Q: What sequence folds into this?
Protein backbone atom coordinates (compact mmCIF):
# COMPACT_ATOMS: atom_id res chain seq x y z
CA UNK A 1 0.00 0.00 0.00
CA UNK A 2 2.84 2.37 0.83
CA UNK A 3 4.49 1.66 -2.55
CA UNK A 4 1.24 2.26 -4.44
CA UNK A 5 0.70 5.51 -2.57
CA UNK A 6 4.17 6.72 -3.50
CA UNK A 7 3.59 5.87 -7.21
CA UNK A 8 0.32 7.77 -7.28
CA UNK A 9 1.97 10.75 -5.58
CA UNK A 10 4.74 10.86 -8.22
CA UNK A 11 2.15 10.67 -11.08
CA UNK A 12 0.18 13.57 -9.63
CA UNK A 13 3.35 15.59 -9.13
CA UNK A 14 4.41 14.94 -12.72
CA UNK A 15 1.08 16.15 -14.02
CA UNK A 16 1.38 19.47 -12.13
CA UNK A 17 3.19 22.08 -14.19
CA UNK A 18 4.18 25.46 -12.93
CA UNK A 19 2.48 28.48 -14.44
CA UNK A 20 5.62 29.75 -16.15
CA UNK A 21 6.13 26.35 -17.73
CA UNK A 22 2.53 26.31 -18.98
CA UNK A 23 3.04 29.72 -20.58
CA UNK A 24 6.30 28.65 -22.16
CA UNK A 25 4.73 25.47 -23.46
CA UNK A 26 1.84 27.42 -24.97
CA UNK A 27 4.18 29.89 -26.67
CA UNK A 28 6.26 27.07 -27.98
CA UNK A 29 3.22 25.27 -29.43
CA UNK A 30 2.09 28.50 -31.04
CA UNK A 31 5.48 29.10 -32.44
CA UNK A 32 5.69 25.59 -33.83
CA UNK A 33 2.21 25.91 -35.49
CA UNK A 34 3.01 29.22 -37.09
CA UNK A 35 6.32 28.10 -38.41
CA UNK A 36 4.77 25.07 -40.18
CA UNK A 37 4.33 25.91 -43.88
CA UNK A 38 1.23 23.69 -44.23
CA UNK A 39 -0.42 25.20 -41.16
CA UNK A 40 0.35 28.69 -42.34
CA UNK A 41 -1.30 28.07 -45.73
CA UNK A 42 -4.38 26.54 -44.13
CA UNK A 43 -4.69 29.50 -41.78
CA UNK A 44 -4.50 32.00 -44.66
CA UNK A 45 -7.21 30.12 -46.59
CA UNK A 46 -9.47 30.06 -43.54
CA UNK A 47 -8.91 33.77 -42.97
CA UNK A 48 -9.69 34.52 -46.63
CA UNK A 49 -12.99 32.69 -46.68
CA UNK A 50 -14.22 33.20 -43.14
CA UNK A 51 -13.10 36.74 -42.28
CA UNK A 52 -13.18 38.49 -45.65
CA UNK A 53 -15.66 36.60 -47.85
CA UNK A 54 -17.81 35.11 -45.11
CA UNK A 55 -18.30 31.80 -46.95
CA UNK A 56 -16.85 28.33 -46.97
CA UNK A 57 -14.67 26.97 -49.73
CA UNK A 58 -16.48 25.03 -52.50
CA UNK A 59 -16.42 21.31 -51.89
CA UNK A 60 -15.48 18.95 -54.71
CA UNK A 61 -18.41 17.50 -56.72
CA UNK A 62 -19.65 14.00 -56.12
CA UNK A 63 -19.41 11.47 -58.90
CA UNK A 64 -23.17 11.50 -59.64
CA UNK A 65 -23.43 15.26 -59.98
CA UNK A 66 -21.96 15.59 -63.51
CA UNK A 67 -24.40 12.95 -64.79
CA UNK A 68 -27.36 14.65 -63.12
CA UNK A 69 -26.20 17.97 -64.50
CA UNK A 70 -25.87 16.44 -67.94
CA UNK A 71 -29.46 15.16 -67.82
CA UNK A 72 -30.70 18.57 -66.75
CA UNK A 73 -28.82 20.34 -69.51
CA UNK A 74 -29.97 17.81 -72.08
CA UNK A 75 -33.58 18.21 -71.03
CA UNK A 76 -33.23 21.99 -71.20
CA UNK A 77 -31.73 21.72 -74.67
CA UNK A 78 -34.59 19.45 -75.76
CA UNK A 79 -37.16 21.94 -74.47
CA UNK A 80 -35.53 24.68 -76.51
CA UNK A 81 -35.75 22.52 -79.62
CA UNK A 82 -39.44 21.88 -78.92
CA UNK A 83 -40.17 25.62 -79.00
CA UNK A 84 -38.63 25.85 -82.46
CA UNK A 85 -40.39 22.89 -84.06
CA UNK A 86 -42.46 19.81 -83.15
CA UNK A 87 -42.11 18.12 -86.53
CA UNK A 88 -39.57 15.48 -85.44
CA UNK A 89 -39.25 15.25 -81.67
CA UNK A 90 -37.49 11.88 -81.47
CA UNK A 91 -34.37 12.97 -83.42
CA UNK A 92 -34.27 16.18 -81.37
CA UNK A 93 -34.41 14.15 -78.14
CA UNK A 94 -31.61 11.81 -79.21
CA UNK A 95 -29.49 14.70 -80.46
CA UNK A 96 -29.96 16.71 -77.25
CA UNK A 97 -28.83 13.82 -75.03
CA UNK A 98 -26.03 12.71 -77.34
CA UNK A 99 -24.49 16.18 -77.07
CA UNK A 100 -23.75 15.40 -73.41
CA UNK A 101 -22.69 11.79 -74.08
CA UNK A 102 -25.64 10.21 -72.26
CA UNK A 103 -28.59 8.08 -73.33
CA UNK A 104 -32.20 9.23 -72.88
CA UNK A 105 -33.80 7.82 -69.77
CA UNK A 106 -37.32 6.29 -69.55
CA UNK A 107 -38.45 9.53 -67.91
CA UNK A 108 -37.18 11.41 -70.97
CA UNK A 109 -39.37 9.34 -73.27
CA UNK A 110 -42.31 9.79 -70.91
CA UNK A 111 -41.79 13.54 -71.17
CA UNK A 112 -41.66 13.22 -74.96
CA UNK A 113 -45.00 11.38 -75.05
CA UNK A 114 -46.58 14.00 -72.80
CA UNK A 115 -45.50 16.73 -75.21
CA UNK A 116 -47.00 14.82 -78.13
CA UNK A 117 -50.26 14.15 -76.28
CA UNK A 118 -50.69 17.71 -75.04
CA UNK A 119 -49.67 19.62 -78.17
CA UNK A 120 -50.97 17.06 -80.69
CA UNK A 121 -49.07 18.14 -83.81
CA UNK A 122 -50.33 17.22 -87.26
CA UNK A 123 -48.25 14.01 -87.40
CA UNK A 124 -48.85 13.14 -83.74
CA UNK A 125 -49.86 9.51 -84.30
CA UNK A 126 -46.98 8.87 -86.67
CA UNK A 127 -44.48 10.25 -84.17
CA UNK A 128 -45.95 8.12 -81.38
CA UNK A 129 -45.52 5.00 -83.49
CA UNK A 130 -41.97 6.07 -84.37
CA UNK A 131 -41.02 6.56 -80.73
CA UNK A 132 -42.59 3.24 -79.72
CA UNK A 133 -40.69 1.43 -82.46
CA UNK A 134 -37.45 3.07 -81.31
CA UNK A 135 -38.02 2.06 -77.68
CA UNK A 136 -38.86 -1.49 -78.71
CA UNK A 137 -35.92 -2.04 -81.10
CA UNK A 138 -33.14 0.24 -79.82
CA UNK A 139 -33.50 0.81 -76.10
CA UNK A 140 -33.09 -1.91 -73.51
CA UNK A 141 -34.60 -0.41 -70.37
CA UNK A 142 -37.84 -1.53 -68.72
CA UNK A 143 -40.52 0.78 -70.02
CA UNK A 144 -42.62 2.31 -67.19
CA UNK A 145 -46.34 1.55 -67.04
CA UNK A 146 -47.24 5.23 -66.90
CA UNK A 147 -46.24 5.61 -70.57
CA UNK A 148 -48.74 2.97 -71.71
CA UNK A 149 -51.51 4.31 -69.46
CA UNK A 150 -51.10 7.81 -70.93
CA UNK A 151 -51.08 6.47 -74.48
CA UNK A 152 -54.15 4.27 -73.91
CA UNK A 153 -56.07 7.23 -72.51
CA UNK A 154 -54.91 9.30 -75.49
CA UNK A 155 -56.22 6.67 -77.90
CA UNK A 156 -59.48 6.58 -75.96
CA UNK A 157 -59.95 10.35 -76.23
CA UNK A 158 -59.49 10.12 -79.99
CA UNK A 159 -61.77 7.04 -80.17
CA UNK A 160 -58.93 4.94 -81.59
CA UNK A 161 -59.93 1.70 -79.87
CA UNK A 162 -57.97 -0.50 -82.24
CA UNK A 163 -54.79 1.44 -81.46
CA UNK A 164 -55.35 1.08 -77.72
CA UNK A 165 -55.96 -2.68 -78.00
CA UNK A 166 -52.91 -3.18 -80.23
CA UNK A 167 -50.69 -1.25 -77.83
CA UNK A 168 -51.97 -3.36 -74.92
CA UNK A 169 -51.05 -6.54 -76.78
CA UNK A 170 -47.52 -5.26 -77.55
CA UNK A 171 -46.65 -4.29 -73.98
CA UNK A 172 -44.43 -7.35 -73.25
CA UNK A 173 -42.22 -6.39 -76.21
CA UNK A 174 -41.22 -3.26 -74.34
CA UNK A 175 -39.74 -5.24 -71.45
CA UNK A 176 -42.65 -4.34 -69.20
CA UNK A 177 -44.75 -6.63 -67.04
CA UNK A 178 -48.29 -5.22 -67.34
CA UNK A 179 -50.29 -4.84 -64.17
CA UNK A 180 -53.95 -4.30 -63.40
CA UNK A 181 -53.47 -0.53 -63.74
CA UNK A 182 -52.91 -0.82 -67.51
CA UNK A 183 -55.83 -3.25 -67.82
CA UNK A 184 -58.14 -0.87 -65.94
CA UNK A 185 -57.07 2.01 -68.17
CA UNK A 186 -57.93 0.00 -71.29
CA UNK A 187 -61.26 -1.22 -69.87
CA UNK A 188 -62.24 2.33 -68.96
CA UNK A 189 -61.60 3.37 -72.56
CA UNK A 190 -63.48 0.42 -74.05
CA UNK A 191 -66.52 0.81 -71.81
CA UNK A 192 -67.29 4.26 -73.19
CA UNK A 193 -69.30 3.00 -76.16
CA UNK A 194 -71.10 -0.07 -77.44
CA UNK A 195 -68.32 -1.15 -79.80
CA UNK A 196 -65.84 -1.15 -76.94
CA UNK A 197 -68.13 -3.38 -74.88
CA UNK A 198 -67.88 -6.03 -77.57
CA UNK A 199 -64.08 -6.09 -77.23
CA UNK A 200 -64.05 -6.38 -73.41
CA UNK A 201 -64.41 -10.22 -73.22
CA UNK A 202 -61.44 -10.75 -75.56
CA UNK A 203 -59.36 -8.31 -73.49
CA UNK A 204 -60.17 -10.17 -70.28
CA UNK A 205 -59.03 -13.44 -71.89
CA UNK A 206 -55.88 -11.73 -73.16
CA UNK A 207 -55.14 -10.36 -69.69
CA UNK A 208 -55.11 -13.92 -68.28
CA UNK A 209 -52.55 -14.91 -70.92
CA UNK A 210 -50.46 -11.91 -69.86
CA UNK A 211 -50.66 -13.03 -66.18
CA UNK A 212 -52.59 -9.93 -65.10
CA UNK A 213 -54.57 -10.60 -61.96
CA UNK A 214 -58.00 -8.99 -61.98
CA UNK A 215 -58.62 -6.98 -58.83
CA UNK A 216 -61.59 -5.35 -57.16
CA UNK A 217 -61.08 -2.15 -59.11
CA UNK A 218 -61.52 -4.05 -62.39
CA UNK A 219 -64.89 -5.42 -61.29
CA UNK A 220 -65.99 -1.95 -60.24
CA UNK A 221 -65.15 -0.49 -63.66
CA UNK A 222 -67.18 -3.17 -65.43
CA UNK A 223 -70.11 -2.93 -63.01
CA UNK A 224 -70.26 0.86 -63.31
CA UNK A 225 -70.17 0.55 -67.09
CA UNK A 226 -73.07 -1.90 -67.06
CA UNK A 227 -75.04 0.39 -64.78
CA UNK A 228 -74.37 3.30 -67.10
CA UNK A 229 -76.12 1.48 -69.95
CA UNK A 230 -78.91 0.33 -67.64
CA UNK A 231 -77.98 -3.36 -67.50
CA UNK A 232 -78.51 -3.97 -63.79
CA UNK A 233 -79.04 -7.74 -64.21
CA UNK A 234 -75.60 -8.43 -65.68
CA UNK A 235 -74.09 -6.05 -63.14
CA UNK A 236 -75.61 -8.18 -60.36
CA UNK A 237 -74.14 -11.36 -61.92
CA UNK A 238 -70.74 -9.71 -62.04
CA UNK A 239 -71.12 -8.60 -58.43
CA UNK A 240 -71.86 -12.19 -57.41
CA UNK A 241 -68.70 -13.34 -59.16
CA UNK A 242 -66.74 -10.58 -57.44
CA UNK A 243 -67.92 -11.76 -54.02
CA UNK A 244 -67.16 -15.39 -54.91
CA UNK A 245 -63.59 -14.38 -55.79
CA UNK A 246 -63.18 -13.12 -52.22
CA UNK A 247 -63.23 -9.37 -52.89
CA UNK A 248 -64.88 -6.92 -50.53
CA UNK A 249 -68.30 -5.51 -51.40
CA UNK A 250 -68.28 -1.83 -52.29
CA UNK A 251 -71.35 -0.16 -50.82
CA UNK A 252 -71.22 2.70 -53.33
CA UNK A 253 -71.27 0.29 -56.25
CA UNK A 254 -74.32 -1.44 -54.78
CA UNK A 255 -76.07 1.91 -54.37
CA UNK A 256 -75.32 2.69 -58.00
CA UNK A 257 -76.74 -0.67 -59.09
CA UNK A 258 -79.88 -0.07 -57.04
CA UNK A 259 -80.32 3.39 -58.54
CA UNK A 260 -79.88 1.87 -62.01
CA UNK A 261 -82.60 -0.65 -61.25
CA UNK A 262 -84.88 2.14 -60.11
CA UNK A 263 -84.40 4.02 -63.40
CA UNK A 264 -85.70 1.13 -65.48
CA UNK A 265 -89.21 2.12 -66.50
CA UNK A 266 -90.44 -1.39 -67.27
CA UNK A 267 -89.40 -2.75 -63.88
CA UNK A 268 -92.18 -3.63 -61.42
CA UNK A 269 -92.17 -2.96 -57.70
CA UNK A 270 -91.71 -6.64 -56.89
CA UNK A 271 -88.64 -6.87 -59.09
CA UNK A 272 -87.11 -3.85 -57.39
CA UNK A 273 -87.70 -5.30 -53.92
CA UNK A 274 -86.29 -8.65 -55.07
CA UNK A 275 -83.20 -6.92 -56.44
CA UNK A 276 -82.74 -5.19 -53.08
CA UNK A 277 -82.98 -8.52 -51.25
CA UNK A 278 -80.34 -10.04 -53.58
CA UNK A 279 -77.97 -7.19 -52.77
CA UNK A 280 -78.62 -7.54 -49.06
CA UNK A 281 -77.77 -11.24 -49.19
CA UNK A 282 -74.38 -10.27 -50.58
CA UNK A 283 -73.78 -7.96 -47.64
CA UNK A 284 -75.21 -4.67 -48.89
CA UNK A 285 -76.45 -2.31 -46.18
CA UNK A 286 -78.83 0.22 -47.73
CA UNK A 287 -78.52 3.82 -46.62
CA UNK A 288 -81.27 6.38 -46.25
CA UNK A 289 -80.78 7.65 -49.78
CA UNK A 290 -81.15 4.11 -51.13
CA UNK A 291 -84.45 3.60 -49.31
CA UNK A 292 -85.62 7.01 -50.48
CA UNK A 293 -84.93 6.14 -54.13
CA UNK A 294 -86.79 2.86 -53.78
CA UNK A 295 -89.78 4.48 -52.08
CA UNK A 296 -89.93 7.16 -54.76
CA UNK A 297 -90.03 4.53 -57.51
CA UNK A 298 -92.75 2.55 -55.72
CA UNK A 299 -94.77 5.74 -55.24
CA UNK A 300 -94.42 6.53 -58.95
CA UNK A 301 -95.81 3.09 -59.75
CA UNK A 302 -98.65 3.55 -57.26
CA UNK A 303 -97.42 0.80 -54.90
CA UNK A 304 -98.51 2.44 -51.65
CA UNK A 305 -98.44 -0.64 -49.43
CA UNK A 306 -95.04 -1.70 -50.80
CA UNK A 307 -93.72 1.77 -50.03
CA UNK A 308 -95.12 1.49 -46.51
CA UNK A 309 -93.46 -1.91 -46.08
CA UNK A 310 -90.14 -0.43 -47.17
CA UNK A 311 -90.60 2.42 -44.71
CA UNK A 312 -91.02 -0.11 -41.90
CA UNK A 313 -87.97 -2.02 -43.12
CA UNK A 314 -85.92 1.16 -42.80
CA UNK A 315 -86.68 1.34 -39.09
CA UNK A 316 -85.95 -2.38 -38.64
CA UNK A 317 -82.52 -1.89 -40.23
CA UNK A 318 -81.76 1.01 -37.90
CA UNK A 319 -82.10 3.68 -40.57
CA UNK A 320 -84.24 6.58 -39.39
CA UNK A 321 -86.60 7.83 -42.12
CA UNK A 322 -86.67 11.56 -42.78
CA UNK A 323 -89.64 13.78 -43.55
CA UNK A 324 -89.26 13.31 -47.32
CA UNK A 325 -89.71 9.54 -46.98
CA UNK A 326 -92.90 10.04 -44.97
CA UNK A 327 -94.15 12.62 -47.46
CA UNK A 328 -93.84 10.15 -50.33
CA UNK A 329 -95.64 7.40 -48.43
CA UNK A 330 -98.39 9.78 -47.27
CA UNK A 331 -98.92 11.02 -50.81
CA UNK A 332 -99.35 7.58 -52.37
CA UNK A 333 -101.58 6.35 -49.53
CA UNK A 334 -103.89 9.35 -49.88
CA UNK A 335 -103.96 9.02 -53.66
CA UNK A 336 -105.01 5.39 -53.17
CA UNK A 337 -107.61 6.57 -50.61
CA UNK A 338 -105.97 4.62 -47.77
CA UNK A 339 -106.98 7.37 -45.36
CA UNK A 340 -106.92 5.40 -42.09
CA UNK A 341 -103.40 4.13 -42.80
CA UNK A 342 -102.34 7.65 -43.80
CA UNK A 343 -103.54 8.97 -40.44
CA UNK A 344 -101.39 6.40 -38.64
CA UNK A 345 -98.37 7.31 -40.75
CA UNK A 346 -98.89 11.00 -40.00
CA UNK A 347 -99.15 10.29 -36.26
CA UNK A 348 -96.02 8.12 -36.42
CA UNK A 349 -94.16 10.99 -38.07
CA UNK A 350 -95.02 13.25 -35.15
CA UNK A 351 -94.17 10.59 -32.54
CA UNK A 352 -90.68 10.17 -34.02
CA UNK A 353 -90.07 13.88 -33.44
CA UNK A 354 -89.89 14.80 -37.11
CA UNK A 355 -91.06 18.30 -38.05
CA UNK A 356 -93.60 18.32 -40.89
CA UNK A 357 -92.80 20.66 -43.76
CA UNK A 358 -95.15 22.50 -46.11
CA UNK A 359 -95.38 19.49 -48.41
CA UNK A 360 -96.45 17.26 -45.49
CA UNK A 361 -99.26 19.62 -44.50
CA UNK A 362 -100.44 20.05 -48.08
CA UNK A 363 -100.60 16.30 -48.63
CA UNK A 364 -102.46 15.72 -45.37
CA UNK A 365 -104.89 18.61 -45.94
CA UNK A 366 -105.58 17.24 -49.40
CA UNK A 367 -106.47 13.93 -47.78
CA UNK A 368 -108.85 15.67 -45.37
CA UNK A 369 -110.53 17.52 -48.23
CA UNK A 370 -110.88 14.30 -50.23
CA UNK A 371 -112.74 12.80 -47.25
CA UNK A 372 -115.01 15.84 -47.03
CA UNK A 373 -113.45 16.99 -43.75
CA UNK A 374 -113.15 20.58 -44.87
CA UNK A 375 -113.47 22.01 -41.36
CA UNK A 376 -110.57 19.85 -40.16
CA UNK A 377 -108.54 21.08 -43.10
CA UNK A 378 -109.36 24.73 -42.33
CA UNK A 379 -108.47 24.20 -38.67
CA UNK A 380 -105.14 22.62 -39.61
CA UNK A 381 -104.46 25.47 -42.04
CA UNK A 382 -105.00 28.09 -39.33
CA UNK A 383 -102.80 26.19 -36.86
CA UNK A 384 -99.88 25.80 -39.28
CA UNK A 385 -98.35 29.19 -38.45
CA UNK A 386 -98.41 28.32 -34.75
CA UNK A 387 -96.61 25.09 -35.60
CA UNK A 388 -93.86 27.04 -37.36
CA UNK A 389 -94.89 26.40 -40.98
CA UNK A 390 -96.81 29.15 -42.75
CA UNK A 391 -99.30 27.97 -45.41
CA UNK A 392 -98.53 28.79 -49.02
CA UNK A 393 -100.75 29.39 -52.02
CA UNK A 394 -101.05 25.66 -52.69
CA UNK A 395 -102.41 25.13 -49.17
CA UNK A 396 -105.08 27.78 -49.67
CA UNK A 397 -105.85 26.39 -53.10
CA UNK A 398 -106.72 22.99 -51.62
CA UNK A 399 -109.15 24.55 -49.14
CA UNK A 400 -110.66 26.86 -51.76
CA UNK A 401 -111.28 23.94 -54.10
CA UNK A 402 -113.01 22.01 -51.30
CA UNK A 403 -115.17 25.02 -50.40
CA UNK A 404 -116.13 25.53 -54.04
CA UNK A 405 -117.12 21.88 -54.33
CA UNK A 406 -119.18 22.29 -51.15
CA UNK A 407 -120.89 25.37 -52.66
CA UNK A 408 -119.77 27.70 -49.85
CA UNK A 409 -118.94 30.66 -52.08
CA UNK A 410 -119.22 33.15 -49.24
CA UNK A 411 -116.41 31.45 -47.35
CA UNK A 412 -114.49 31.28 -50.62
CA UNK A 413 -114.65 35.07 -50.97
CA UNK A 414 -113.53 35.52 -47.36
CA UNK A 415 -110.60 33.18 -47.80
CA UNK A 416 -109.61 34.89 -51.05
CA UNK A 417 -109.35 38.15 -49.12
CA UNK A 418 -107.25 36.37 -46.50
CA UNK A 419 -104.98 35.01 -49.23
CA UNK A 420 -104.51 38.49 -50.67
CA UNK A 421 -103.51 39.81 -47.28
CA UNK A 422 -100.94 37.05 -46.65
CA UNK A 423 -99.76 36.26 -50.17
CA UNK A 424 -98.64 38.54 -52.96
CA UNK A 425 -101.29 37.59 -55.51
CA UNK A 426 -103.23 34.65 -56.91
CA UNK A 427 -101.71 32.72 -59.76
CA UNK A 428 -103.34 31.50 -62.93
CA UNK A 429 -104.04 28.03 -61.56
CA UNK A 430 -105.98 29.36 -58.54
CA UNK A 431 -107.94 31.82 -60.69
CA UNK A 432 -109.00 29.08 -63.08
CA UNK A 433 -110.01 26.84 -60.20
CA UNK A 434 -112.09 29.64 -58.61
CA UNK A 435 -113.75 30.60 -61.89
CA UNK A 436 -114.60 26.97 -62.52
CA UNK A 437 -116.08 26.77 -59.02
CA UNK A 438 -118.19 29.90 -59.46
CA UNK A 439 -119.38 28.73 -62.88
CA UNK A 440 -120.29 25.31 -61.49
CA UNK A 441 -122.32 26.97 -58.72
CA UNK A 442 -124.11 29.34 -61.15
CA UNK A 443 -122.50 32.55 -59.93
CA UNK A 444 -121.81 34.33 -63.23
CA UNK A 445 -121.20 37.71 -61.63
CA UNK A 446 -118.51 36.29 -59.39
CA UNK A 447 -116.89 34.49 -62.33
CA UNK A 448 -116.85 37.68 -64.41
CA UNK A 449 -115.33 39.58 -61.50
CA UNK A 450 -112.53 37.03 -61.31
CA UNK A 451 -112.05 37.29 -65.07
CA UNK A 452 -111.62 41.04 -64.76
CA UNK A 453 -108.99 40.47 -62.09
CA UNK A 454 -107.18 38.06 -64.38
CA UNK A 455 -107.18 40.71 -67.10
CA UNK A 456 -105.73 43.23 -64.68
CA UNK A 457 -103.06 40.74 -63.62
CA UNK A 458 -102.23 39.96 -67.26
CA UNK A 459 -103.05 36.27 -66.80
CA UNK A 460 -105.90 35.89 -69.27
CA UNK A 461 -103.77 35.21 -72.35
CA UNK A 462 -102.71 31.80 -71.11
CA UNK A 463 -105.99 30.76 -69.54
CA UNK A 464 -107.47 27.56 -70.98
CA UNK A 465 -110.73 27.94 -69.09
CA UNK A 466 -111.69 31.13 -70.92
CA UNK A 467 -113.44 29.25 -73.72
CA UNK A 468 -115.45 27.34 -71.16
CA UNK A 469 -116.50 30.59 -69.45
CA UNK A 470 -117.61 32.14 -72.76
CA UNK A 471 -119.66 29.04 -73.56
CA UNK A 472 -121.23 29.10 -70.11
CA UNK A 473 -122.12 32.81 -70.47
CA UNK A 474 -123.80 32.11 -73.80
CA UNK A 475 -125.80 29.20 -72.37
CA UNK A 476 -127.06 31.28 -69.45
CA UNK A 477 -128.14 34.12 -71.70
CA UNK A 478 -125.35 36.54 -70.80
CA UNK A 479 -124.47 37.21 -74.42
CA UNK A 480 -123.34 40.78 -73.75
CA UNK A 481 -120.85 39.61 -71.14
CA UNK A 482 -119.63 36.88 -73.45
CA UNK A 483 -119.22 39.33 -76.32
CA UNK A 484 -117.38 41.84 -74.11
CA UNK A 485 -115.09 39.12 -72.75
CA UNK A 486 -114.35 37.93 -76.26
CA UNK A 487 -113.65 41.49 -77.42
CA UNK A 488 -111.30 42.10 -74.48
CA UNK A 489 -109.53 38.85 -75.23
CA UNK A 490 -108.98 39.86 -78.87
CA UNK A 491 -107.78 43.32 -77.87
CA UNK A 492 -105.45 41.82 -75.29
CA UNK A 493 -103.89 39.50 -77.86
CA UNK A 494 -103.49 42.38 -80.29
A:
Amino acid sequence: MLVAHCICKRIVAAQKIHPWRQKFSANQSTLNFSTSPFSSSSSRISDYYIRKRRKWPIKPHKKQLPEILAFQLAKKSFKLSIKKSKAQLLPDLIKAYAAYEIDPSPQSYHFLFKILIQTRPSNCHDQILQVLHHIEKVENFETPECIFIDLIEFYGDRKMLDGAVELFSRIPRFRCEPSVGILNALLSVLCRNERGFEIVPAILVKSQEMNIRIEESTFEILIRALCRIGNAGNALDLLNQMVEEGFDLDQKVCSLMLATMCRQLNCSGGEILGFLNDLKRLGFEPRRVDFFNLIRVLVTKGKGMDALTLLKEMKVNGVRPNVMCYNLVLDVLICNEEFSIADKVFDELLVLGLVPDIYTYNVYINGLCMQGKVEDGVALLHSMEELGCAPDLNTYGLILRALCEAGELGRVRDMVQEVRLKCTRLDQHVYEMLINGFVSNGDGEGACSLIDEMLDENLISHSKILDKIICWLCKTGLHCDAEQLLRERILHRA
